[in-house]
Amino acid sequence: MKKRKAAVENLARHIALALLIFFFLTSWMIAAEPPAFSVAASAQPDSFSDNGAIANFEAFRVRNRARSLERESLFKATAERIQVLEAQADSAFRVRNYALARKRVRQILTLDAHDRHALELLASIREAEHGKPAKKLSFELFREEAPLLSKEEKEKIIASFIARGKKLLRKKQYDDAVDEIENVFVLDPLNAKASKLIDRAREEFIREKKVEWKEEAALSGENFSDKMELSLNTVKSLIKAKEYMQARVILNRMAFLEPDNKSIRKLMHQIQQLETKEAKAKAA
Fold first, then answer.
1. pLDDT digit string (tens) for 27-69?
2. Rounded distance, CA 146 to CA 157, Å?
3. CA 162, 168, 169, 175 torsion: positive or negative?
4. pLDDT, tens digit, 9 for 90 and up, residues 223-251
5. Distance, first Cα to last Cα, the chain
6. What is the pLDDT of residue 35?
7. HEC readout, the chain
8. What's the pTM value of the predicted model, to 2 decimals?
9. In the chain, which residues have pLDDT < 70?
């Protein structure tokens, strides 16, 4: 009887323990569910946000690719058009149809104002017509063609010179920038924008050179005015030695730094007089 009672009590303890464990597991699972749903819910907007960012990036990339392909296509079409015009201009020149050759050259330079083949052909046309070779291969050769261009064509070429001039100016290539911008005057001698850009190029060059000379003077323990005086003395020595070209180079540099310096102008005038005198003596 006692054994039976002990067995029943033991079974009851096991059942109670099992129920207790089940109760704790159930409670833990119920408590764990809300955070899981909460995380899922809070993650959902981020997911939408990420998807939106990815979609925007893809759209941006597609637009950029489309623009790039459009530019490439336009560049290729322009290059092909220029090749056709060059072939037609060459053919016209060979049969001495200079009017047609000039027309094709104008069309080429409207598309690319720096096309070397077109400028070479224009120089050849002028030599064939006038019997004189061009002194320099530059856009200056185009001066006679300028009146035949439309207003839109002129504006397009001018815009290309201005844009390239500004680019060179940003790179501090002042001489090249001025040469580029001066091409504008072939088409429009009174172009105010080109004049202002050239003035800006000169001002920036003068400012940069002044800083450079002052730094050099400071490093060597000299004063800037002393350095200018030393340069003037160097020029005078070169004039005495009849090294006029070297003297002029130094004076031109000094004139940029001190445009109102009367001594510089006086020495330049002296060099001019001496060169004229020597040229007359040789001619006699």
1. 545 444 444 444 444 445 555 556 777 777 777 777 777 777 7
2. 11
3. negative
4. 666 667 777 888 888 888 888 888 887 88
5. 159
6. 46
7. CHHHHHHHHHHHHHHHHHHHHHHHHHHHHHHHHHHHHHHHHHHHHHHHHHHHHHHHHHHHHHHHHHHHHHHHHHHHHHHHHHHHHHHHHHHHHHCCCHHHHHHHHHHHHHHCCCCHHHHHHHHHHHHHHHCCCCCCCCHHHHHHHHHHCCHHHHHHHHHHHHHHHHHHHHCCCHHHHHHHHHCHHHHCCCCHHHHHHHHHHHHHHHHHHHHHHHHHHHHCCCCHHHHHHHHHHHHHHHHHCCCHHHHHHHHHHHHHHCCCCHHHHHHHHHHHHHHHHHHHHHHC
8. 0.55
9. 1-50, 213-214, 216-227, 256-257
Q: Which pLDDT belongs to residue 33?
A: 47
The position carrying tokens 């690319």 is: 112
- pLDDT, residue 40, reads 44
> In this structure, which amino acid lies at residue 9?
E
Q: What angle do CA 67, 71, 75 make, to 5 degrees?
A: 170
What are the CA-CA distances from residue 104 to residues 204, 238, 281 (Å)? 39, 51, 49
- CA distances from residue 269 to 85, 203, 231, 248, 272 in whole angstroms, order as listed: 49, 24, 17, 10, 5
pLDDT at 43: 46
